[in-house]
Write a structure and sequence with these properties.
The chain has about 200 residues and is α/β, with parallel strands linked by helices. The protein is built from 8 helices and 9 strands. The strands form 2 sheets. The protein has a 7-stranded mixed β-sheet with strand order 1-3-2-6-7-8-9, with helices on both faces. β8, α7 and β9 form a beta-alpha-beta unit. α3 packs across α5.
């Protein structure tokens, strides 16, 4: 599995020393979260990657859900993203910190990246996302570092099961510095109030 270098979308100031990595949800593509990043008005360099798996007219990070394949698909995707960061000087030159914003399956991938390389990412924004099964060999190290994670989700999300939400909260509380926000009228999407919370979180 390999990230398509030519499909990576780079935005923001070239002189920025902070990189925001955007990971779209299943069925979307690299264009999906760029308007959200624009709305945040951050001084970061921004890069949006394309999921390597074709899925329902869009792209995905893994063909199956993490429960179906034991997390192997997301492990492969996380390895591919880490390899891309190692070979992408146009995106990473001069960068002193990397933060991740992931939506839905992209959020699950963001957490898997944090698990596989806990010393590499400064913070994660998890939007309508969840923890998946996968390589957790560095979870103990992650629990010592406790990086900040903003977890925003809708109270009436019809996609993420209640059990997945419970497991995600338990895992985040044990391994990260969690800021959980629940939006009463939001389903599986992003709310305007949520964007304001994300912007405030990332400006710290």
């Amino acid at each position: 599995m390999r990230i398509d270098d030519a499909a990576a979308l780079l935005a923001g100031p070239a002189e920025a020393d902070s990189l925001l990595l955007l990971l779209h949800g299943r069925g979307a593509d690299e264009h999906d979260l760029l308007p959200l990043a624009d709305a945040l008005r951050l001084p970061d360099r921004v890069v949006a990657l394309r999921g390597p798996v074709a899925w329902d007219g869009g792209r995905a990070w893994a063909q199956r859900t993490a429960d179906e394949d034991g997390g192997a698909g997301l492990d492969e995707a996380a390895t591919a993203v880490l390899e891309w960061l190692d070979r992408a000087p146009a995106a990473t030159q001069g960068i002193r910190r990397v933060r991740i914003l992931g939506f839905s399956q992209g959020g699950a991938l963001a957490l898997q990246l944090l698990r596989m390389a806990p010393d590499r990412f400064a913070a994660v924004v998890l939007l309508s996302g969840f923890i998946a099964a996968g390589d957790g060999r560095r979870d103990e190290e992650l629990a010592r570092l406790r990086p900040p994670v903003l977890w925003g989700r809708g109270a009436i999300d019809p996609v993420i099961p209640a059990r997945a939400i419970e497991l995600t909260r338990e895992w985040l509380e044990r391994h990260t510095t969690l800021d959980e926000r629940v939006y009463p009228l939001l389903g599986h999407g992003v709310a305007e109030a949520e964007l304001a919370d994300v912007a405030a979180f990332l400006r710290n």
